[in-house]
Specification:
This protein has two domains: 195 residues, 2-enoyl-CoA Hydratase, Chain A, domain 1; 46 residues. Strand 1 and strand 2 form a beta hairpin. It is built from ten helices and ten strands. It has a six-stranded mixed beta sheet with strand order 1-2-3-5-7-10, sandwiched between helices. A four-stranded mixed beta sheet has the order 4-6-8-9.
Length: 260
C-alpha cells in the first residue's frame, strides 16, 4: 500500500509505522490520520505482524500536535464531529487493536501526538522527548482522548496540572509519572522497542490479544473487567496456542505457538 504522509515497514514480525511529515514536525492532519488508520488496520490483519511500533521521522518530533490550520474556522458542530471521527478512526481504534502497539516517542509529543502515544498499549521515549497537552492555550481542550487517558496513566492531579498549565514535561518526568515505561538515548530508541517486541513475540499472540481486551475493559464505563477477564481466560482454553503452551511446559521445551 502506498502512503503520502507515513511509512510502513515490516521486518521479522514487526511492522514499524513512521509518521513522515518532518517539515510539519509530523503534525497530524486528516489525511495522515486516515493513512495511519489504514496502516494500523493492514498490520493488525497481517498474520505475519506480531507487534506494531509507531514512531515519527527524524529526531525532533514524534508528533508535534494537530494541524491547526485545518480546524481554526470550525464551528461547534464541526468541532464535535472532528473529535468523534478522529477518536473512532484512529485513537480508540489503536487502543483496541488485538496486535500489541508500542509507541517509540522521539522528541516532541504534543496535543494529538501525545494522545496517539497514549492510545498505544505502552510507550518508550528518547531522552530528548517532551510531552504535553497544550490545547487550552488555544482556547480548546484535548479532543482525541487526552482528558481520559492521561488521568488513567498519571493520575487525576497530575493530569489536571498538565492540561491546565498547557506545559510540557521532559522524558524523565514522564518516566516518574508512569507515562512512559523506559527512557533511552535517541539512537537506541527503536532498537529498544524492537528488543521489547522480540520478547513479546515469544509468547502466544492469541493470549496477548485476550489480555489486551481484558486490561482495556477495566477502563470502560459500565463494564466489569473481572467478568471480561473470566471470559477471556476461558477462551484461551479453546486455542491451539493453549495446547502448545501447556504441552511444551510439561515436555520441558520451548513453545512454538501457531497463533491460533
Amino acid at each position: 500500500m502506498s502512503y503520502n504522509n507515513i511509512l510502513s515497514d515490516h521486518q521479522n514480525g514487526i511492522t514499524t509505522i513512521t509518521i513522515n511529515r518532518p517539515k510539519k514536525l509530523n503534525a497530524l492532519n486528516k489525511a495522515t490520520i486516515q493513512e495511519l488508520h489504514d496502516a494500523f488496520d493492514a498490520a493488525d490483519n497481517d498474520e505475519n505482524t506480531k507487534v506494531i511500533i509507531i514512531t515519527g521521522s527524524g529526531e525532533k518530533a514524534f508528533v508535534a500536535g494537530a494541524d491547526i490550520s485545518e480546524f481554526a474556522d470550525f464551528n461547534v458542530e464541526q468541532g464535535g464531529q472532528l473529535a468523534a471521527e478522529g477518536q473512532e478512526l484512529l485513537f480508540d481504534f489503536v487502543q483496541n487493536l488485538s496486535t500489541p502497539v508500542i509507541a517509540a516517542v522521539n522528541g516532541f509529543a504534543l496535543g494529538g501526538g501525545l494522545e496517539l502515544a497514549m492510545a498505544a498499549h505502552f510507550r518508550v521515549a528518547s531522552s530528548n522527548a517532551k510531552m504535553g497537552l497544550p490545547e487550552v492555550s488555544l482556547g480548546v481542550i484535548p479532543g482525541y482522548g487526552g482528558t481520559q487517558r492521561l488521568p488513567q496513566l498519571v493520575g487525576k492531579g497530575r493530569a489536571m496540572e498538565m492540561v491546565m498549565t498547557a506545559g510540557m514535561i521532559d522524558a524523565e518526568t514522564a518516566l516518574n509519572y508512569g507515562l512512559v515505561n523506559h527512557v533511552i538515548e535517541i539512537e537506541e530508541l527503536l532498537p529498544l522497542a524492537e528488543k521489547i517486541a522480540s520478547k513479546i513475540m515469544r509468547n502466544s499472540s492469541v493470549a496477548i490479544s485476550e489480555a489486551i481486551h481484558a486490561i482495556n475493559a477495566n477502563y470502560e464505563a459500565g463494564v466489569n473487567g473481572f467478568n471480561v477477564e473470566i471470559e477471556a481466560f476461558g477462551n484461551c482454553f479453546g486455542t491451539e496456542d493453549f495446547v502448545e503452551g501447556t504441552t511444551a511446559f510439561l515436555e520441558k521445551r520451548k513453545a512454538d505457538f501457531p497463533g491460533k
